[in-house]
Design brief:
The structure holds two protein chains of two kinds.
Chain A lengths: L2 H13 L1 H15 L6 H21 L11 H17 L3 H9 L2 H11 L4 H44 L4 E4 L2 E7 L4 H18 L3 E8 L5 H17 L2 E5 L3 H10 L7 E3 L2 H11 L11
Parallel strand pairs in A: 2-3, 3-4, 4-5
Antiparallel strand pairs in A: 1-2
Chain B lengths: L5 E4 L2 E5 L6 H18 L3 E5 L8 H16 L3 E5 L3 H9 L8 E3 L2 H13 L1
Parallel strand pairs in B: 2-3, 3-4, 4-5
Antiparallel strand pairs in B: 1-2
Classes of the chains: A alpha/beta, B alpha/beta.
Chain lengths: 285, 119
């Protein structure tokens, strides 16, 4: 695209800035009815248009990644990130830019009524730029969503591996959710650390909350048991559901060396016996 | 050449490893230990590795072998005080040290041995 057409575009925007801003705000209000953010959007329109026209005027190519577009891009990026955090859809985010097209094009039609060549040029240029900007907002939106997801994953990881002390020298590790390599690593480390801290002789790994056990998960469990044994603590695996027991046998996983119990209560009784404690019912008078 | 001291407490030999284990040192320990078991008529060995941050596959195998040798000489070997990181590494390497007894610390290891000797 030649320099003149971008100049024409910038001139038109500057000339009719107030009118264009108002039209844009009106279009935005129509597409974003019910979001309750009209005033915020209106303010953003007023900020964005001058940046847009300045960038159009200064940038040599129709590429929004050049430095001339920095200001406009930063404003949009901030807006998109905010939208992602507030839980809006990508469409709602991108509509902000795309809704500028209609008022801008009708302005062109009026301005270049007798100059079809300029009309086509200006329309094409602004269309290309606005498409790029719209896609840019979606991209930033997606990125911030990904960040949110990975942060939540991290939080879940920290939350989901508590090691609790049941009794003197007895630890329990209630596992909830699917076990993958990174999670098992965290589980293993926190269990071993806790064994050192408390000097526990027995650890009960309860897998009632683990939905499926495949070869990988079984492998991870066996590794945890082996590592605990190397440190001098015994492990009991409890809470194995009937289906999971069948799966384990079908997969040919060897749990021969590990004590397994159906429920946490059974495992606890065994652990108490191992540590030399006994439970007896008290008769009430 | 540096040597790892072997202490005798009753019928039990106590080895505390407080330097970085390199391969030659590990082999020397294995030899010393088997000689001492015979000389002192020991029937229990405690190897304390709580100060070791690194145990590679070779050291792991030497520990395993030492335990096997001791068993042939009628002495029970207990490895005590393994660090969590070391335990994880050994498991990842596929070295489960089967046949080696373990305990959390020297005290528990002693208790384990004396239980075994009494029975």
């Amino acid at each position: 695209m030649s320099q003149p057409s971008s100049n024409i575009l910038a001139d038109v925007i500057n000339k009719y800035e107030a009118e264009l801003t108002n039209d844009w705000k009106r279009t935005l209000t129509q597409v974003s009815v019910g979001t309750g953010l009209e005033s915020e959007l209106a303010q953003l329109c007023t900020q964005f248009l001058p940046l847009f026209s300045r960038a159009v005027q200064r940038a040599a190519q129709e590429n929004i990644n050049s430095t001339e577009w920095d200001e406009a891009r930063n404003l949009l990026a901030e807006f998109s990130r905010l939208r992602a955090r507030q839980g809006f859809t990508p469409t709602q985010t991108a509509m902000f830019i795309f809704s500028l097209k209609q008022p801008l094009f009708s302005l062109f039609r009026r301005e270049f009524a007798t100059q079809p060549a300029e009309l086509a040029d200006a329309t094409w240029l602004s269309n290309t730029l606005l498409d790029q900007l719209g896609l840019f907002t979606v991209e930033v939106f997606q990125q911030s969503r990904d960040q949110i997801i990975s942060r939540q994953q991290q939080e879940l990881l920290e939350l989901s591996t508590p090691v609790v002390k049941l009794w003197q020298n007895i630890l329990a590790l209630p596992l909830i959710g699917t076990l993958d390599s990174s999670r098992t690593q965290v589980v293993m480390e926190s269990l071993l650390q806790k064994i050192i801290e408390t000097g526990a002789a027995i650890a009960i790994i309860d897998i009632t909350g683990v939905p499926t056990v495949d070869t990988l998960v079984a492998q991870h469990l066996l590794k945890t048991v082996a590592a605990a044994r190397l440190m001098g603590a015994d492990c009991i695996i409890s809470g194995i559901r009937p289906q999971i027991a069948q799966t384990i046998v079908h997969l040919g996983v060897d749990l021969e060396d590990v004590i397994t119990k159906a429920t946490l209560a059974d495992a606890f009784v065994v652990a108490l016996q191992r540590t030399g404690a006994t439970l007896s019912p008290t008769l009430k008078a | 050449m540096e040597k790892i001291p072997i202490l005798r407490i009753g019928k039990v030999l106590l080895v505390t490893i407080q330097v970085d284990m390199h391969d030659r040192l590990a082999l020397a320990l294995q030899e010393d230990l088997s000689e001492r078991i015979v000389r002192d008529e020991a029937n229990g060995v405690i190897i304390d590795i709580s100060a070791l941050d690194i145990v590679d596959s070779f050291i792991g195998r030497v520990l395993s072998n030492t335990a096997a040798v001791a068993r042939i000489l009628d002495a029970e070997t207990i490895v005590v005080g393994m660090q969590p990181a070391v335990a994880i590494t050994l498991v990842e390497l596929g070295l489960n040290l089967t046949g080696v007894k373990t305990a959390l610390n020297v005290e528990l290891g002693m208790a384990m041995l004396s239980r075994r000797l009494r029975s």
